[in-house]
Amino acid sequence: MVIQRLPLLISLITFFSFAFALPNFRRGVPYTPTTVPSLPTTPPLPGRPGPPDSPGSPGFPTPPGGDFEIFTIDNNFETAENDLPVIGTVGSLGVYNMLNWNMVCGDAALKRKAKLARDDLPTDPNLLGRQETGLISVTPHSPPNVAGWAARSELENGTPFISCNYETSIIDHFDLFIPEAPASFYYGCVSDPDSDVALPETCVISAIGYNRAGDVVARQQFEYVWEHGISQQMSPGNFDSTFTNLYTVEFQTNPPLLFGAVLDNVITKVYQRKE
Predict the structure, then answer these.
(1) Of residues 174, 210, 181, 186, the one with CA closest to residue 96
(2) For the chain, first and last CA: distance in Å?
(3) Distance between CA 152 and CA 89 in Å, rounded?
(4) CA–CA separation, 269 and 2 (whole Å)
(5) Which residues, in sequence order, are bridge partners of residue 263?
């Protein structure tokens, strides 16, 4: 009896095995894939963007110095043309150390002496000598040259600024935040650089940083306090960490057009595109 039913049992087992296996077959039974070596990524063509995770593409940080030559410069203005004085100025410094400076530059004390002599004004020889050595007003941090602006220069040249925007520029951006430097720059305020004697004054210098798109990305104020003397040292200033990746930085003095401002030893980190 059992032997007669054996073929039937085998048929039933085979049927149910196939029935249970069929859904798995349709769904796809999990399997262990065979590892195949990946092909090398084809580099992007010149002038075309690479894949999203390639250097230089949006969202991927460019390695420091990878696309740029980087120069850290102490702008002390000693190699600048000395015929652009803070006093009686016409024109601006222009391109200096790879950036465009819409400021005047020169040896303010020497030009003050020349102005007094040119005007044939009666002067005390002792006072004149002190003017020549820069002991009156704000003393340059690294004599003799300084850069700056005042009422006349702003009226003639417009808002003072530092920028990498000029006709022959290959500068991508610049930084004024230099953490390794004891001071980012030195600054001072004077009563009126266009007058015969410019005395130290209390004022606030504002710096406004813009990126290449023209958006404000940084803003900071620096106060210079008069110590009630006729001669005073410049104050050190440090730009904060927002002053990076800059295209232009504009400067303002408060009160506006009443006082002049002088800068010295402005340290810049300039990023020049590799060609």
Answers:
(1) 174
(2) 95
(3) 7
(4) 96
(5) 147, 187
Tens digit of each residue's pLDDT (9 = 90 or more) over 204-234: 999 999 999 999 999 999 999 999 988 899 9
Q: By C-alpha distance, which of 144, 142, 70 is closest to 114?
A: 144
Residue with tokens 């506006």: 256
Residue 81: partners with Cβ closer than 8 Å, 6 or more residues away: 93, 105, 106
Give Cα separations from 223 to 30, 148, 153, 182, 262 (angstroms): 71, 16, 21, 18, 13
**Tens-place pLDDT, residues 21-34:** 444 444 444 444 44
Look up residue 249 and give its two tokens. 């930085």
Structure tokens at 20: 């249970």
Structural contact between residues 145 and 82, judged by C-beta atoms closer than 8 angstroms: yes
Cα–Cα distances (Å) from 54 to 42, 60, 63, 64, 122, in that order, read 11, 7, 11, 15, 71
Q: Give the span between the Cα atoms of 183 and 175, in whole angstroms.
A: 14
- The SS3 call for residue 4 is helix
Burial of 259 (0-12, 13-18, 19+ CB in 10 A): buried
Of residues 27, 151, 155, 144, the one with CA closest to residue 79 = 144
Residue ranges of E strands in 176-257 = 185-190, 203-210, 216-224, 231-233, 235-237, 248-254
